[in-house]
Amino acid sequence: MNARVHPPVHSANHAPSYYAASANRQLQYPPLGGEVKVDVCVVGGGFSGLNTAIELAERGLSVALLEAHQIGWGASGRNGGQLIRGVGHGVEQFEPIIGQDGVRELKLMGLEAVELVRRRVAKYNIDCDLTWGYCDLANKPAHFAGFQEDMAELQSLGYQHELRLVQPDRMHEVVGSSRYCGGMIDMGSGHLHPLNLALGEAAAAQALGVQLFEHSAVTRIDYGPQVKVHTAGGHVLASTLVLGCNAYLNNLNPSLGGKVLPAGSYVIATEPLGEERARALIPQNMALCDQRVALDYYRLSADNRLLFGGACHYSGRDPADIAAYMRPKMLEVFPELADVRIDYQWGGMIGIGANRLPQIGKLKDQPNVFYAQAYSGHGVNATHLAGKLLGEAIALRESRGFELFAQVPHMTFPGGRYFRSPLLALGMGWYRLKEAVGLV
């Protein structure tokens, strides 16, 4: 099976994003037909599945990967492209479960996760516009005080990359907006073209012998010592199964699906601004993110567009016009862009867990079924970490990192499939109200 490489064209199967329009390769893989026997079947053609497949193939296991749509079709090919350290929010909460040393290891893995992306891009020579430099933006003085604590903690963990605080009167050196009151620069985080990264990793996986199948939605799973994974056109027999569908798991496994909430996130891309105007907005070409509950994140593309994202929706309903919804948010930060055309608008689902820690483990009643999901906005790096840990746990049958993640319990969202999103939307609305009146 060989992928065919075509000139960059827009694919109707991907979201109508800037990334799809600027993909530097178009890989086409066949749908599954007949029977395939492998050591491991991976379901999901995003970063989780691709990196798990690479890790396993590098260790000599045979792998088949099934993707319902196209490689990178979900959040992996639609996200904001921000590669930021960390894998969770407030990991100290897990100290009663994994201990103080375990919490420290989680934090160190949050730093390692970015390095995994760095090494994968270098090893397989993946052209994905990887650019280093990121800045956390303070919306209020309390955020800036928190950055000082973050910086001290990172230094205590032996963080190897440059960190520096940006005082309020120097913020113009980072962002051309008067909206913020300080920042923290991290030169070990950055930004990239996520779809090109996914496509490059798919090519790497295929070169390692992984069999990739697109347009192969899983219709049924027969569990047991040998797993049988069915699609409309065939089935895969495997000793081990990995579910890496995240927010797009749907009802494939209701137990796992109840622990991850699909939440909509949206991005717009302006017309090319030209070098001078683009650098007036973001002088050092960094990725930027603020600290609000409904956060803004933005960066420049390689051709000097502003990519502006955020507005996480828990209601399950997308805006009728994403550009009309997102443009006012962009203009609050950069009012000088009022005359700028929006060339692309798109959205997608990210997976949110109740405790904001990625869910990496295996099913209690099916010990040969592994999973990774619920990255809660840190998916670009955390997926690569998940792939490494799953690869170790499956191929080597031991992984300290995997065991740490697997120990943490994860709550099933109340309300069932149809009511959990509205219930959480109400809760998040209350939290945003508290933020607006200064209670958080």
UniProtKB/TrEMBL annotation:
GO CC term, one of those recorded: cytoplasm
One Pfam family from the record: DAO
InterPro entries: FAD-dep_OxRdtase, FAD/NAD-bd_sf
UniProt keywords, alphabetically: Oxidoreductase
Annotated GO MF terms: oxidoreductase activity
Keyword Oxidoreductase among UniProt keywords: yes
Residue span(s) of domain FAD dependent oxidoreductase: 39-392
Protein name as it appears in the record: Glycine/D-amino acid oxidase-like deaminating enzyme
The organism of origin for this protein: Pseudomonas fluvialis
